[in-house]
């Protein structure tokens, strides 16, 4: 497992620590373990940390620490951190209104896989997904564990604006747009929940290690949720 | 209250500081001045700490009235501006008094690059959001409620950390702006995904700056970069300066507001010392890329950092 470790420079102020080359809960756990060890330690020069599926991105100030010294710190942290990271464990239910204007790509995704729209909804709302990482825009969760029968490539021509709350599919991932932003994922539904709300005490709804289950709701229920 | 009054904001002016750190793991971009050296030196000229907030002015057209006596400096790729109708130089501190009117035009020869920075003694004192005063337009937070500046905005100023500098910034502290710059890059992290021919093309041919250029990224157009295994990767961390290549073989240089993660390969990253040149790229201009290794990049960083840290006596 150690043999897959790669420490790659990203310019003169970034480092990517790769633990593997697949979306895998064990690899992701190693990423999050290094993240939490480095975050809780006092390492001068580290400006920011970004845990992703299979790698940890580190932004640093070369005036404060060299690439070599950081590599040494990283290797020491990996060797010393034997404690597994506990998943936060919370299962968060996300209500989703599938199809129609909220999910303009539902029919197309269904057709691509020789399924009916209701099959897509059932297959998408059955699994409990792990939040592997938060990225792209504030609070956007990358969820692994999508049913293989729904695996769909990104749109070849991304949309200029995907509304916040849109639930999308890209390859073996599913995710939820947290703010209005450009995007190339296939949009199959929308949640009335706010993944990111700057006015909330905790602005982010989900964190890495959480679990998510999608609950299909009607357009009427969506409107009720939005009124709250 | 010490303040300034925005008379005309121009096409796009926002409050920016050195950036937002510590929130990448939540998907919050770094933000901050695109030309961080210009803002940083501007702050030093007016006696501010390096983290003070200033105004990033895109494509000029910016008019402001001072509501108090203070000092200010203009930095970026411009030679000067007009204070009460009289020409003043960029890259040095100037006194201003209540009622003085500053105009940063975009219709004359003074202004060649895309972005200008206005630093004022005490800095713009808007509330911090997640450790920073920088405006994040897409996220609608930071600066003035997450939006661009408007006519009539009155911006409060803080207390200066020290006196302004009497001398202009040494030329060694001014980035070597050029309308057709050669950007130095460190290859990686996914440089192994381009073919030898693709690499030769990318490092020898010029690329055109397209209209799709904002604080998130600058899309380039030019010879197709050959990607034998396509452009997709398992999404991983990105950073300002990273050069992404999309499935069509065209590169994009990521900016200060870039997405924190991305699913496209990054073939190289522009060295931090050259990010100010990226910030000033005007659509229609051309860029070239040249490789340096990490150790050369660090040497360049250290020299530049030493100059900036030591120009104040």
Task: Describe, in plain words, how this protein is organized in 3D.
The complex is a heterodimer of chains A (228) and B (313). Chain A folds into two domains: 2-80, Gyrase A, domain 2; 91-227, Cyclophilin-like (Cyclophilin, Beta Barrel), CATH 2.40.100. Chain A is 24% helix and 29% strand. Chain A contains five helices and 13 strands. Chain A has helices at 25-40, 67-80, 106-112, 117-125, 219-227; strands at 6-10, 14-18, 46-51, 55-60, 91-98, 129-134, 141-144, 159-162, 166-170, 173-176, 181-183, 186-190, 211-216. In chain A, strands 5-12-9-10-7-6-13 form a seven-stranded mixed beta barrel. Chain A has a four-stranded antiparallel beta sheet with strand order 1-2-4-3, covered by helices on one side. A two-stranded antiparallel ribbon of chain A has the order 8-11. The model of chain A has no long low-confidence stretch (mean pLDDT 92). By secondary structure, chain B is mostly beta strands. Chain B has two domains: 3-173, no CATH class; 182-310, Cyclophilin (Beta Barrel). In chain B, 13% of the residues lie in helices and 34% in strands. The relative contact order of chain B is 0.18. The chains are: A alpha+beta (228), B mainly beta (313).
